[in-house]
Amino acid sequence: MHQDYIKPDNWSIIEEGFDRDRVESSESLFSIGNGAMGQRANFEEKYSGHTFQGSYIGGVYYPDKTKVGWWKNGYPEYFAKVLNAPNWIGIDVEINGESLDLNSVRDVRNFRRELNMKEGWYNRSFSATLQNGLEVSVNVLRFLSMDLDEAGAIKFDIIPVNGNAQITFRPYVDAGVQNMDANWEEKFWEPISVASDANSAFVTARTFKTHFTATTFMQNAVFVDGNLQQMVPSDIQKSGDKIQFTYTVDVTKGQSASIEKIGGYTSSMNHSDTVTAAAEVVKSANAKGFNGLLSDQKNAWAKIWEMSDITIDGDVKAQQGIRFNIFQLNQTYSGKDSRLNIGPKGFTGEKYGGSTYWDTEAYCIPFYMATKDQQVARNLLTYRYNQLDKAIENAAKLGFNNGAALYPMVTMNGEECHNEWEITFEEIHRNGAIAFAIFNYVRYTGDYSYVPEKGLEVLIGIARFWHQRATWSTARNQYVILGVTGPNEYENNVNNNFYTNYLAKWCIDYCVEQLEKVKDEFASDHNRILSKVNLDEVEIAKWKQVADKMYFPFSEEHNVYLQQDGFLDKELIKVHDLDKSQRPINQKWSWDRILRSPYIKQADTLQGFYFFEDHFSTEELERHFDFYEPFTVHESSLSPCVHSIQAAVLGKMDMAYTFYLRTSRLDLDDYNKEVKEGCHITSMAGTWMSIVEGFGGMRVKDGQLHFTPRIPGEWDGYSFKINFRGQILKVSVAKNQTSFALESGDNSEQITVFMNGNAVTVEPDGVVVI
Amino acid sequence: MHQDYIKPDNWSIIEEGFDRDRVESSESLFSIGNGAMGQRANFEEKYSGHTFQGSYIGGVYYPDKTKVGWWKNGYPEYFAKVLNAPNWIGIDVEINGESLDLNSVRDVRNFRRELNMKEGWYNRSFSATLQNGLEVSVNVLRFLSMDLDEAGAIKFDIIPVNGNAQITFRPYVDAGVQNMDANWEEKFWEPISVASDANSAFVTARTFKTHFTATTFMQNAVFVDGNLQQMVPSDIQKSGDKIQFTYTVDVTKGQSASIEKIGGYTSSMNHSDTVTAAAEVVKSANAKGFNGLLSDQKNAWAKIWEMSDITIDGDVKAQQGIRFNIFQLNQTYSGKDSRLNIGPKGFTGEKYGGSTYWDTEAYCIPFYMATKDQQVARNLLTYRYNQLDKAIENAAKLGFNNGAALYPMVTMNGEECHNEWEITFEEIHRNGAIAFAIFNYVRYTGDYSYVPEKGLEVLIGIARFWHQRATWSTARNQYVILGVTGPNEYENNVNNNFYTNYLAKWCIDYCVEQLEKVKDEFASDHNRILSKVNLDEVEIAKWKQVADKMYFPFSEEHNVYLQQDGFLDKELIKVHDLDKSQRPINQKWSWDRILRSPYIKQADTLQGFYFFEDHFSTEELERHFDFYEPFTVHESSLSPCVHSIQAAVLGKMDMAYTFYLRTSRLDLDDYNKEVKEGCHITSMAGTWMSIVEGFGGMRVKDGQLHFTPRIPGEWDGYSFKINFRGQILKVSVAKNQTSFALESGDNSEQITVFMNGNAVTVEPDGVVVI
């Protein structure tokens, strides 16, 4: 059974009641972030129960020495991990000499957490009876500023309910933190300096090996009954990597004692002198004050929702689910900085090292393209462009040459980090997703300039890789691609994975097309690039041979492309006929059994049909869907969205809705019993796609928007907005009508879209109801 | 270039001259053992240069916690490793107050090591000039007693050449040792007690987790000019895990100072009170004295050589090579104890953990069958019989049931230890080798009693495994075996590896045959076994279906069985056409490149033709040899012997000789540049097979010996002896004649053998020359 303690609410994630066993799960679910940093919902005060502490700074990572049982040539030396960063939220609290600790107080009542997604803050409140008999009422509000993105703020209020109290706040900054996931239990941070100035403190530490410097700071203000106390710490405890202030106030029964703590990080990614920079941030935050920062926060989130909200009528759990997904995506990546990317767990945990996967290109880019300015998606593409040299180095390590590029499976700085041969060396389809994202970006935004400026070089490196990676089969008289792992990681080292072969051919064809187009339309770029990468017609002709003579496994009997050679040799027992006690197979079966089974972890052949929908007829899609869906176990969070979209296309709305539900509340309801490790951030973009591309049927064809709206029987209506080439279109779908509304803005032109193939023209500020 | 510092000699391994860079290699090559224990040729005195310390006690192991990058369901918790055991050989030496250390003396001359294989001892001698100007001449003789197999002996002589000297011997026993290869750098030994009595000392330690107790002991006697000094230690240093005695004598120029040290281990494998047992061993050794022990040693080795020697005339390097192999096999496994087995590195290093691999059944059993009493091979079979329950547990962990047995890839106590999914879960052909060894044992020895007593249960467990592991392919209308790794580990997770499928079918067929035979001839055993394992005719009929409808990949075009499905899709570039800079591919290529290449690490399809030679015609063998040999890189030490035997069968004597040379001096000439890690013990049995089965052409058919002698052009002659069912036959092959000599013994019957198909009868003590 999955969990169901989160209260249904349209705009907030709410937990009521204190349960020690839920603390770590809630620490994930109530995580907050602002694109530049993020943190799990750890308590500010001491907590002696089970907790998973986590604060993260975007882009600051540590190369953790690889741990393997048996080394294979080509393995990377390290796995780059986003670090657990120094703790700035900590505030130890003593009340009448007793430490406030929810694990050891006599009693906790009215415990409540709320993550207000509309306004971007997290609040925690409770009443507790201490061992000394005193009852206190506590409220803590916290947020990470979207505007001043190096700062966060906490307001911690305590009211003694049944007596007077001496309350001691001991706010601290601590760089003596470690990762839960450290291969060799090494320390990742080296302390540099600890300094303080009146109510501020600055702890500077440097990561070993990568030498990122970060100053973690705090600025404290203490209040009694809302009145600022003009006080400095009565005591300051300093060690090499920690500083802690002491403030003591006396309050009478019913009076509040409060501390406002501003904190955050300035790092060497953005500053040469991080201490001075931190003092500047403190100054800016002080100028706004807590309330000013909070007010800005609400405005910032209002703007985000204005553009990216999806409404669902008549299904509060579905509404809460989709907003949670959109909220998390916005917390994780703001698109401001092309050095950053989207880790599978965002800022909510350590798993997957916070590194970049092909998830970004395959699942996240559509979301950011449609809900942000196109510069955001362009930054994500540029991230890969900037890592092209590293991708060429990665390929060289595996024996490829002449500028062939293999983008890494997992990376922070462009170097491959993963160390399972069947993934690192063989899950090479990722390379195709990088190329597809360029195509997808141009198709959606119409911004072709990216191709001559940056994209074409990436496409050339990728085409070169596929040309070299394919080998000639004399027996087949065709090119084959041997020894790969497709998106379905429940098959390893297979030959001729359809998805991989198809993508490889497409990458070459697309690159050759763009070479022609750039030659015709951007001649000077063409010359610059060809001379830079030393490419000539002879080489291009060789690529074309591979693309033209690529082999695709096909079953005449079933009239479908086969996931890989030999797929039909398997015992083709459908998931439906598998005993439930055997599920999930990744927990119940040994790896060899999984591999020889027909079960599909996530869309593989169907992922190809998703990317290249317009290459196939609906009949072909249906045949492949009907063939593969019954063998798909969806044991990856990235799987159901593709199936949901395709089920919608095929009019199988019940299936589409089931798949949708499975993704949208995956974390809130903890279907996989692992949310305490963090949330599935990248798959959240797939949930968005399920609605917009699945139910809404949004596609871009020949530079124009097409929709085929459908609505699940369980809903009264839904709406979403998209930014299409600078125009903001709101699409609202009800049981019996669809309406299109065009927001006016900088762009005062009308827009023509297609609904079920029929043109619909919408004027600025106009609404068309159909 | 390979090394060539070992002096050619018919009976000894000799090194001359001191070279710091060779110390670790020589420590491997000059290793000594007696089946129960063994040790690398570490210096007794202090050595501050690079050295790899190693002493091992057969069967005493530690379960080292598994280290992997990414856990897969079914991985074992630990890897069992033979431990580096406490050091008893250590004798620190001080001469006129200066420590004797070959790394820091002023000068070393006349350094010489000799491993006398004929007599079973190791001698080291040198002259050194100390920093204080004194010249000394040193001679150290050491051996591990084959008779008193818990004891070894050292005689350490020093003569000051150019002055008088005060010489201090500090013999010690030290249990504070660690493994070079320890996954988590844990300590493996827990000290228990340290005791001494006059000139004896006893250090008792226990392994963590496995709780083997071992007492390591020493007994010392000091001599001046050969005269025993009635003295006890002038000082005794004790710590928790070490004890060291001090003896000081004064000698004049030209006089010798000597210490005789008896030492060794008594372990809880054989004794409940290891300290008392150690005192008994000391007593027994004292009774013999150093010279008595040495004299016994020479006799023991004379007996071994009497039975197992191979002579080669006209090629001293080949002679030295084959004797080194036979010597090492006898040092490693004496066959006395069915709890022991043959680790790939024997007692010469830590690699492969000293654990048991399928090498034993596939390569070692023929050697021990032919050169020892049949009880030795029976003990090796019994080792697996005793681990049948664990093999059933191993299979259950992978989802098999009903008593299906999967023998481990690597083991000490029957539990699987290895942790690479492509090996642990998929290199399942090992199971077939266990069954084949039973067949091979019965074929050679004629001792069928093993089958009803023990073997049949093993065969049933294995047949059950194959029945469950094969799956039905509707597409082929045959049974297939998906997702395996064959003997050629340069292919992983392939479908329908010919060798595996063939062996699987054979295992079932053979088991069913033996069930019939035991039913007919050993009815009570039959009833006992069927009821014990709960087997009935219905189940057997299901096995038969699998065997009868097994699929074998075959190429009509090439008229050969294919190594696996899809082999012909590869780029079939022959090894000969591969640039030399690319070799060895396991050092030059990343794993994916190796996997998609056609290159074969060790005989795979050809291994099947070796096991089942009589199932195929010579033409078929030749076709397969000619097809696969050109793709074989022989990057396993177990590969060339099979190719050598088959080349000999096919009359390709140049190839046969080349392959032979490559195996027989693999370690002496350090072809793989890794001998410092230890010697390749199990492949040494393959070298023996190359001569006896390859050049000699020995086969057993219908209970009789057949020979097809051939002689490499480089040799004048060779001879080998075999024990065939209690009769000792010597086969001598010269350029133009072959002679058979039958030794008389307990058995006074004549023997009829076949040479090139013609019967030859030899009388006891008779010789037949052909």
UniProtKB/TrEMBL annotation, chains A, B:
Belongs to the glycosyl hydrolase 65 family. The lineage of its organism: Bacteria, Pseudomonadati, Bacteroidota, Flavobacteriia, Flavobacteriales. GO terms for biological process: carbohydrate metabolic process. One of its GO terms (molecular function) is glycosyltransferase activity. The keyword Hydrolase applies. The keyword Cytoplasm does not apply. Keywords: Hydrolase. The active site is at E489. This is Glycoside hydrolase family 65 protein. Substrate binds at W358, D359, K601, Q602.
